[in-house]
Amino acid sequence: MNWVDNWHCRFCGEPARGGPVCEGCRADLPWNDLACPRCALPGATDDICADCLGAPPPMDMSLAPFVYAPPIDQLIQQLKFNRLLADARWLCDALADRRRDHPAPLPDLILPVPLHRWRLWWRGYNQAAVIARHVGRRLKVPVQLHNIGHSGARVHQVGLDARARRRAVRGAFDVRLDLRDRHVALVDDVMTTGATVHELAQAVRAAGARHIEVWVLARTPKSQGRAAARQSTARPGQGRT
């Protein structure tokens, strides 16, 4: 028997071929198949959403294989707060596969969203770097883990609306890279309000980047944005929205 036949589904426990999730459970996952191409917001179509039409974001495209909903939300919380990496690989594989299926050329460089040093100390690792390393290996795109600092104030964002979150991260990133004419991808675990990736994208653009993508494991639906933001900031050490 080949080793790939020895998997058992991590959701239902039934035999799974070729990976840790069986075909039935995989089909039931909250896939983000119809989404805005600029901000990855789930929608009824894959057209640019009204928000991006009204105020184009600083990134040129975004993608997220999953909607931030059960059971994906719990898995990402376990990765973020409890250092449980058991599901990280197949979640990252889903992200890599989603980007590989996109017709646009791959970027030159992957940049994980950095953590504030206090949150990095508290948590012990940056989950965005874990995701970026795995996806970079799958896609054969180099990952830059240094020379982007998070110099913003250590602000807890519990209960803040989107505008307040944008103020909280304004000027937070110090990009010490020459990105002139580079095509880059910013990687994180979840996009909720988008405040953090918007701010980093602006800093990366100011460093010369020509084309900017945002890759996340999951995107929060607009109707659930506030609740998800409260949940994601309810634990100490959480740093991004």
What is the fold's blueprint, element by element?
Layout: E1 7-8, E2 15-16, H1 23-28, H2 50-54, E3 61-63, E4 66-67, H3 72-82, H4 88-100, E5 109-112, H5 117-123, H6 127-139, E6 148-150, H7 162-169, E7 173-175, E8 183-191, H8 195-206, E9 211-219, H9 225-232
Helix pairs in contact: 4-6
Explain what the structure shows:
With 241 residues, the protein is of the alpha/beta class. The chain has 2 domains: 1-30, no CATH class; 31-232, Rossmann fold (3-Layer(aba) Sandwich). The protein has 9 helices and 9 strands. The chain has helices spanning 23-28, 50-54, 72-82, 88-100, 117-123, 127-139, 162-169, 195-206, 225-232; strands spanning 7-8, 15-16, 61-63, 66-67, 109-112, 148-150, 173-175, 183-191, 211-219. Strands 3, 4, 5, 8 and 9 form a 5-stranded parallel β-sheet that branches. Helix 4 crosses helix 6. It is globular, with a radius of gyration of 17 Å. The N and C termini lie far apart (45 Å). The relative contact order is 0.17. The model is unreliable at 226-239 (pLDDT under 50).
